[in-house]
Design brief:
The chain is an alpha+beta fold and 104 residues long. It has four helices and four strands, in the order αβαααβββ. Helix content is 42%, strand content 20%. β2 and β3 form a beta hairpin.
Length: 104
């Protein structure tokens, strides 16, 4: 069985939820969300469910492995105004940060 199939079957059996720790945001991320009129929760919820956003297949596999084995997880989304927004969960799950790529 390939890894992707295993992940999909595990997700169907039990809803996936990534532990986030303390959720914080950088000033740039807050400004981008306000400018777009987007709510942080619409991106945080996707990240927490394992929807990594606009990432390559290789990055998706790295995130799947990181989520399962305690590694760094980075999702990439685009706000309604077109700004790139990253959500980064630390390997120890102590914190999740909403940030702009240039602030990371």
């Amino acid at each position: 069985m390939c890894e992707a199939s295993h992940y999909q079957q595990r997700s169907k059996a039990r809803p996936f939820q990534l532990p986030l720790g303390r959720v914080v945001a950088t000033g740039g991320a807050i400004d981008a969300l306000v400018n777009a009129g987007d709510l942080p929760s619409q991106f945080i919820d996707r990240h927490e469910r394992g929807d990594w956003g606009n990432v390559s297949e290789e990055h998706r596999r790295l995130n799947d492995d990181g989520a399962a084995m305690g590694g760094l997880v980075v999702s990439v989304y685009r706000t309604s105004a077109g700004a790139d927004l990253w959500i980064v969960t630390e390997p120890d799950r102590s914190a999740t940060t909403l940030t702009l790529p240039e602030e990371y």
